[in-house]
Amino acid sequence: HDLSRIRNFCIIAHIDHGKSTLADRFIELSKIISERDYKDQILDSMDIERERGITIKSQAVTIPYVSGEGVEYQLNFVDTPGHVDFSYEVSRAISSCEGALLLVDATQGVEAQTLSNLYLALEHDLEIIPVINKIDMPAADIEGVKHQIEHDLGLPADEAALISAKMGTGIMELFEKLVKEIPSPSAQEDAPAKALVFDSHYDPYRGVVVHFRIFEGSFREGQEIFFMGSESRYTIDELGRFRIGLERTGKLHAGEVGYFLAGIKTISDIRVGDTVTDYKHPCKEALPGFMDVKPMVYSSIYPVDSNDYQELAAAMEKLKLNDASLVYEKDSSLALGFGYKCGFLGLLHLEVVQERLEREFGLSIVFTAPSVMYEVYLLNGEMIQVETPADMPESSKIDYSMEPYIKASIITPTEYIGNLISLCEEKRGIQKDMIYLDEKRVEIIYEMPLAEVLFEFYDRLKSVSRGYASFDYDLIDYRRTDLAKLDILINGNAVDTLSQLVFRENAAYRARKVCKKLTKEIARHQFQIPIQGAIGNHIIARENIRALRKDVTAKCYGGDISRKRKLLEKQKEGKKRMKMVGNVELPQSAFLSVLKTD
Ligand code: GTP
């Protein structure tokens, strides 16, 4: 075991600049996986990641590398996500590394998350290697991007690595560069064992798998360990490295990254950011751990079938193991029974949680309209935090309300400035600054209500700038607002889980959109179904779903019986995902569709 042969680094970049592709190339060249088993995007192992083509989870992997001089290295690297919602994953990955490869797409240049990820890496004193990717593309502007790296990022551009992760160009040179430039971990091997829990996951066959980076001492199978934060004690059953899957080694030393199993039964004992040490010879102080994440958006989730509540409870606990940014507490609704009120980092995070609960745990669930956290001041001087429409006090008791504001930084080619300014103004934005980065690109700074950014803003930003503008944001403060609770009535019944908190001026517009959406989601019944939007007793929007005339199976009469059976089965399958509201069947998709106002 030789520390000077270890390199721990992460790959960071703006979304789509090629991190996962580069990680795949590293793995391919290290030959830890046979060609036969090789498939694209190895590290994006969740189905959702493959389908959407984005990374959601940071993934650690260890590969061997023999340098040109014949020295064998152990490279531990982490592929991180690029989307704004998941920057928390990046900050965690960074804390177990000494270096970072900062990828910049040669056709796109420096974008918003290139900057925000660079700042994260600098805060942690990482050695940063700028890498220009996609040099194979005809539109690659290497000189232009070099200028941006020098000018916008303040990094020496002459030393930037030039690669094509897709074609495999420049990868060997990048390996050589990174083993030379990224420092080896500095760690005391003979000190008491000390490691950071940076992630964990639940394996249905093996139970809780803890991911850790060792800072001091060593860990081995059979060792008694102690989690300093949760004050819990376990014995390590199995321990090893991340290859493709887990590779048992029995022992790991300071500076290394790996996993262990310890027959952990109480899932809440495992906290990301906790320090794990030797039980008999503990280290003195815990590692600093991670900053608590602040959820940006809240929504409640319920099982479609109320009997599944216990299953949902177990699933939430396991999901939390692998997603430290998820926060939740118990909740209940008239229409939907028991569930959880959850905090998410953004709408994409919410969608991912929904999909993971359904795919990994086989649950059918319903989400309520997401909301930011409002501060509502009552006439009696009290302040309450309102995260869901159900928390909203009666309007006669309210003095005034406050909503969270963000500072948004948008980087765009100059030709889209006009479009972006109109979009921001429409979203109640206040322009604060406009900085020309060079002749072709500008950074626009806006202050905007977070609630406006949550819905459709990102998609609109991309569409008005033909995909060229990029965007990043930080929460700044709370400001006065005019808040109203919009209720949705289906066949005269208010459905508590469809209610939304809205800026009063936008209420009528929002209500019309939601009603229209619902007419598309709800199937025709034997009777006409009115769908209405209301604030208090005041109806502000209305649509109708016309009554059904024919029996759906009618067209199969005389036809083949198996076709008819298939149709009925399909309906039954659909029913499982239906929620009855009064005498109307509401499909699960209706709950999410109302959030998307396109
Ligand atoms: P997120 O993890 O979602 O932030 O994305 P990412 O940075 O991991 O990007 P990914 O590796 O998924 O690549 C995005 C797209 O760029 C994919 O379609 C890749 O095939 C493509 N791509 C990546 N590297 C190269 C390259 O060197 N040349 C070309 N032509 N395309 C590339």
Task: Describe the protein in words.
With 598 residues, the protein is an alpha+beta fold. The protein is 25% helix and 35% strand. The chain contains 14 helices and 33 strands. Strands 11-10-16-7-8-15-12-13 form an eight-stranded antiparallel sheet. Strands 2-3-1-4-5-6 form a six-stranded mixed sheet, sandwiched between helices. Strands 21, 22, 23, 24, 25 and 26 form a six-stranded antiparallel sheet that branches. α7 (309-322) crosses α8. It is globular, with a radius of gyration of 26 Å. The relative contact order is 0.08. The model has no long low-confidence stretch (mean pLDDT 85). Guanosine-5'-triphosphate binds at residues 13, 15-21, 53-55, 81-82, 133-134, 136-137, 164-166.
Question: What is this entry, summarized?
Answer:
The chain is of the alpha+beta class and 598 residues long. It has 14 helices and 33 strands. It is globular.
Task: Write a concise keyword list for the protein shown above.
25% helix; 14 helices; 598 residues; ribosome binding; alpha+beta; binds guanosine-5'-triphosphate; EC 3.6.5.n1; eight-stranded antiparallel beta sheet
Describe the secondary-structure layout.
Blueprint: E1 6-13, H1 19-30, H2 47-52, E2 59-66, E3 72-79, H3 87-94, E4 99-105, H4 112-123, E5 127-133, H5 142-151, E6 161-162, H6 171-181, E7 194-203, E8 207-216, E9 218-220, E10 224-227, E11 232-235, E12 238-243, E13 245-248, E14 251-253, E15 257-261, E16 275-278, E17 297-303, H7 309-322, E18 327-333, E19 337-344, H8 347-361, E20 365-367, E21 374-378, E22 383-386, E23 398-413, H9 417-426, E24 430-436, E25 441-449, H10 450-454, H11 457-464, E26 470-481, E27 483-490, E28 493-494, E29 500-503, H12 507-521, E30 529-535, E31 538-545, H13 561-576, E32 578-581, E33 584-587, H14 588-593
Parallel strand pairs: 1-3, 1-4, 4-5, 5-6
Antiparallel strand pairs: 2-3, 7-8, 7-16, 8-15, 9-14, 10-11, 10-16, 12-13, 12-15, 17-19, 17-20, 18-19, 21-22, 21-23, 23-25, 23-26, 24-25, 27-28, 27-29, 27-30, 30-31, 32-33
Bound molecules: guanosine-5'-triphosphate (GTP).
